Amino acid sequence: GGVGAGNGDFSGQVYTVDRPTVLSIVRASGDNTAASIVSYTVTFSEPVYGVDLADFALVQSGGVSGATLRSISGSGAVRTVSVNTGAGIGTLGLNLVDNNTIVDYTNNPLGGVGAGNGNFTGQVYTIDRLRVLSINRVNVSPTVAASVSYTVTFSKPVYGVNLADFTLVLSGVNGATVTSITGTGAVRTVVVNTGTGNGTLQLNLVDDNTIVDYSNNPLGGVGAGNGDFSGQVYTVD
Q1: How far apart are CA 207 and CA 217, in angstroms?
Q2: Is pLDDT above 80 for 173?
Q3: What angle do CA 151, 212, 182 make, to 5 degrees?
């Protein structure tokens, strides 16, 4: 190159480094959902294969529990992952966990050689199921009344509320019964005959999946008992 810095410089050939990556994991349907099944759209930087349920993990927080991965569909660079939302109210996220089984069509592993370097954190669903907010006394306590009332308030308008959805817990009181239910929308008034004797009387809701919101999502989510709620207590004197 002769005397002088730089006059012997030489540019070498270039490698194109093409590793598949995850571009996004996004909700496939609306947030703030009470649905028992939701889906995510997973988009890669190029067509891949080897995508299976073992490549994903669910992150549950708040009161959500029992959520499970359900199925994967799609091909090329896009997959749809279906998830059972379990029970409870809170958030649910889908993450990809790179275990080097996902590869592109020339067998380059996700993120390059080595597990974990293709990990990706997806969007989160807010799971907001129909639930009971309160079962409160309407009348004063203690009481000598032959009948008392409770106000039952749900988180959203419902239908399917009937006498079989309630039970009484009695201590010292005998023969008390739930006699009637009135109201619409998100509020019901439940009337209770206080029976005989002195003691306490409590109205509880027992979730048998007959109470649903206007989109037919059941109280507490799919499954009996996950919408149970204990009400306030009257002292009958």
Answers
A1: 13
A2: yes
A3: 35
